[in-house]
């Protein structure tokens, strides 16, 4: 990943994200499934994003999970007549201005009953950074020297290794003999992928939101990723963008702190919508995607980078097969984040301190076929608390006559 940062005179704000920027490069030609808060019905609804506006389709499909279980979700979304609730511009403005208000029409995270799982250490670059975190015990000042040391030992050979292959097993044997083996190398080049729970159903936040890092963390970063929407039968039905925010200091202290590093209030950002697979967009398009990230700080700091999915070490279909099957089921479907090669190492505040977020950072994650997901950074303790869970959703759908 190429990284660069420079000081800008005037940092951009979320409000500078125009509606057309939010869309994929081919505009409205895809099947764009959003999830919205609709104050007219007092609750969340699946929605179709179309050229003439955003349509609440909850009378046809009460939840996103329901729609994604259809034989052809893209066709089901296209055939749902729905009710127009506003323009893309209106919903984007509501999302940015008051992301937690129940009286404002706005975008939510585009999945609901699906749990959010994440695949870790799926790129060689990020695998090396996990090794560095582990060696540094969560101390960012120690990372630079360890990075240089590991580069001399590992070289670039790990990029070409197929996880679980005979060659990977031989590399593992050699590294064990040198005393260089690690749990991160095990999941990076071993036969079994690391797949963990990032967020529970309904806990993710959407475009325009304030997304959270713990106030206590002093070494953390965004992780721009593509997420695959998977049906209960194991079929991949669509894709979305995600920020799998990570606290590097917590995970570096111990891999057993991964839940603390990954799953905090407002720490999983999804959107702006799910692009359902159809004749014009599918899994091969995901495989060839380039995910771009931009961070703009309140002090004018800028960071940019790209993550090319062609460099992923495990094919997305293989990751899905390790997620769901005879050994594990997801009756409401599941969202799988594919991992990232983005691991910023440039110093932000002090020499040798690496990158870490500041409150007020604006994060933009984009891919040509999936549009742009934009949000701000705040402390998890200061973000709107998660209060709308499964019981609240069931009660809301019952009041609207949509249950069953």
How would you describe what is shown here?
- This protein is an alpha+beta fold.
- Helix content is 26%, strand content 27%.
- The protein is built from 13 helices and 19 strands.
- The strands form three sheets. Strands 2, 3, 4, 5, 6, 7, 8, 11, 12, 14 and 17 form an eleven-stranded mixed sheet that branches. Strands 1-16-15-18-19-9 form a six-stranded mixed sheet, with no helix packed on it.
- The chain is globular.
- The termini are far apart.
- The model is unreliable at 1-12 (pLDDT under 50).
Could you provide a short overview of the structure?
By secondary structure, the chain is an alpha+beta fold. Helix content is 26%, strand content 27%.
Number of strands: 19
Ranges where pLDDT stays below 50 over 5 or more residues in a row are 1-12
Number of helices: 13
How much β-strand is present in the residues? 25-35%
Largest sheet: 11 strands, mixed
User: What is the C-alpha radius of gyration, as a whole number of Å?
Assistant: 21 Å
The coarse overall form would be globular
Helix residue percentage: 25-40%
